[in-house]
Amino acid sequence: MKTIFIATKNKGKVKEFESFFQKYHLKVKSLLDLSEDIEIIENGRTFKENAFIKAKTVCDIIKLPVLADDSGLEVEYLNNEPGIYSARYAGLHGNDLLNNQKLLEKLHGVPFEKRKARFVCALAIVYPDGKTIETEGECRGYIAEDMRGDRGFGYDPVFYLPDFNKTYAELSDEEKNMISHRGRALEKLEKVLDYDKDNCCE
């Protein structure tokens, strides 16, 4: 079985990528599978820039094609906060509960129609020869007034989709893959690559 390498330590993201790539019979490996700790300085100003930085940093070290994503939540009422700082919105990187609590507190009392938000995902594959492929996907919804559901990760429990009457955290894996920002970015990537597995995977 061929392997595709993902530049992340986020177990939730790894699970989503595994769910997507299983139909192509590709095994997903991530930074969690490396013995060395690779320091990635995410100093980009956009999701797209940070995705490229992650992929290139890891590719330069392991000398294999690397797929990276940078994703987050933008809330219109909050001038697109938390944006690229989504993972560390409350100060501690990756503390989902604190991030969600801070977001709900900032939106306390704001009416539903003003709670518009979107999830954004930027993907980048960087090859050892310098070739780069980039795509982006988004999913629009609203911020709920409280957390609902126990699936997913990050801001999934507060991201509400009126068409489903569910939050991201209440969707099945199949439902989420169909409409998620990451799923849509992967669909675009699939069209660009035409899944030439001999080149994108080891």
Topology readout:
Elements: E1 2-6, H1 11-21, E2 26-30, H2 47-62, E3 66-75, E4 81-82, H3 96-106, E5 116-126, E6 132-143, E7 159-161, E8 166-167, H4 173-179, H5 181-193, H6 197-200
Parallel strand pairs: 1-2, 1-3
Antiparallel strand pairs: 3-4, 3-5, 5-6, 6-7, 7-8
Helix pairs in contact: 4-5
Describe this structure in words.
Helix 4 crosses helix 5. Strand 5 (116-126) and strand 6 (132-143) form a beta hairpin. The mean pLDDT is 91. The chain has helices at 11-21, 47-62, 96-106, 173-179, 181-193, 197-200; strands spanning 2-6, 26-30, 66-75, 81-82, 116-126, 132-143, 159-161, 166-167. It is 31% helix and 25% strand. Strands 1, 2, 3, 4, 5, 6, 7 and 8 form an eight-stranded mixed β-sheet that branches. The protein contains six helices and eight strands; from the N terminus they run E-H-E-H-E-E-H-E-E-E-E-H-H-H. With 202 residues, the protein is α+β, with helices and mostly antiparallel strands.
Structural class: alpha+beta
**How would you sum up the major sheet?**
8 strands, mixed
Global geometry: globular
Helix content: 25-40%
Number of helical runs?
6
Poorly predicted runs of 5 or more residues:
none
What is the number of strand segments?
8
Beta-strand residue percentage = 15-25%
Task: Indicate the mean pLDDT.
Answer: 91
What is the terminal separation in angstroms?
Answer: 9 Å
What is the radius of gyration computed over CA atoms, rounded to a whole number of angstroms? 17 Å
Give the ordered list of helices and strands.
EHEHEEHEEEEHHH
